[in-house]
Amino acid sequence: MEPRAYPLGEAVKLVKGASTTEFDAAIDAHINLDLERDKPEHQLRSFLALPHSTGKTVKVLVFAEGEVAKKAQEAGADAIGDDALIESIAQGKLPDVDAVVSTPLFMAKLARIARFLGPKGLMPTPKAGTVTDNPADLVGQFKQGRIEIRTEVSSIVHVSIGKVSTPDEDLIANLKAVVAEVNRLKPAKITGNFILSVFLAPTMGPSVRVDLESLK
C-alpha cells in the first residue's frame, strides 16, 4: 500500500514535525523519476540557484586575481586562491571548502591539482558553470543556495531545500523551483508522467509524500 500523499503546504508542516533531532535539521527532497539508468541521455545534471537560502553555510574558494578577486571577496568568497595555494594543494593540503570557482585564466594552473580537487567534486569546469569571468556572481549564488540536480546510479534526485527553521513559504518556493527545473530536464522521448513521486524528509525522521498536483 502506497503512503498517503499530502498537499505541499501540509506536507511541509508534517515533515518539520517529523524531525527527531534537537538541532536544526535539514529538509531534503527525494524526487523519483521515470528514467532508464543505462541510457546516457537519461543521466541528468543541472545547477540551480534557489529563490531562498537553504540555511547551509557554503565555503567558497575563488581562483582569481586583481579587481576580479577583490569583487569575489566582497561578494563573500571565503578564500582567494593564488600560486602559493596551488602549490600547497599540490602537496596534499586541501583547504576546507565546499565549492571552488575559477576564472578561465587560472584553469591551466589548476590542471596540476585536478587529482586533488576532482575526487571531491571541487574541480571547476565550464559544464558546471564554475569557470567564469565574473566569479562574484557565482559566489553570491553559492551563498544563497545554489544546488546541483543530478542523477547518477539511480533515477532519484536528492536535494536539500532548507532546514526545519526555514519559513514554510520558502521551503515551498524552493521545492517548486526544483520540480520546475527537473521537468525542464525531461528527456524528449519520455512521454507520460516523468516525476513519479516526491518525498520530503528531515535529517532524521520519517518521510512525507507530497501530492504531485499541489506542486503545479
Automatic annotation (TrEMBL):
GO molecular function terms attached to this record: rRNA binding; structural constituent of ribosome
Similarity-based family: Belongs to the universal ribosomal protein uL1 family.
InterPro entries the record matches: Ribosom_uL1_bac-type, Ribosomal_uL1, Ribosomal_uL1-like, Ribosomal_uL1/biogenesis, Ribosomal_uL1_3-a/b-sand, Ribosomal_uL1_CS
Protein name, per record: Ribosomal protein
Domain of life, per lineage: Bacteria
Organism: candidate division WWE3 bacterium RIFCSPLOWO2_02_FULL_53_10
One GO location term (cellular component): large ribosomal subunit
Record keywords: Repressor, Ribonucleoprotein, Ribosomal protein, RNA-binding, rRNA-binding, Translation regulation
Classification via Gene3D superfamilies: 3.30.190.20, 3.40.50.790
N-terminal signal peptide: none
One GO term (biological process): translation
